[in-house]
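The data are quoted verbatim here:
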Amino acid sequence: MIPRYQKILFAILLIASLAMGVLLWQLRERAHKRLVAGEASAPTKAPEVAPAEQATLVAANDADNSLVPQVHSLPLPADPGARARAVLGRLLDLYADPEATHPVPGGAASVAQVFLLPLSGKAKSHTPDALLAVVNLSGNFAAGHPSGLQTETLTLDSICATLRANLPRVVEVQFLVDGQQRATLAGHADLTRTYLTAEATPIEGTTP
């Protein structure tokens, strides 16, 4: 025969279990309602993207060691630094194409950041609103770049010319690799110097 105190204890445990089950069910229902309410109130509008604009990419051509302007339509942010990164990213995407006239692997991801800094007071030959562009390239881009003075110089000159074509206030360019100064791009072209965008002059003509 089961003692009376055990029957009472069993009844208490049973009631507690039932009460706990009801409480858990209520908490689950509340959590579900909050989730549904949150989804219903979440914005359904797609995030805005930068409008497409025409940009001039000055692409290198290994066949005759030239720089040729090409007009492309691409989304360009309003922020000048982001704008510079966007046009350089598209330029390096051209070089990563299998049929590129200046094949260099890496693509847009090779441009980590572009910083624009004022040059006022540093050089009398520059206008008061002149800018220095600091282009931070990835280590993978430098490691995979074909070695040779001509091909490395063409890459750097095309970057400088593209910046000048789209952001005329950029008159000087410095290059970093993974945020650090590097002696050369791939063994030849000097990355310790400052490049003048005016010296990177494309040939006449535009390729659509």
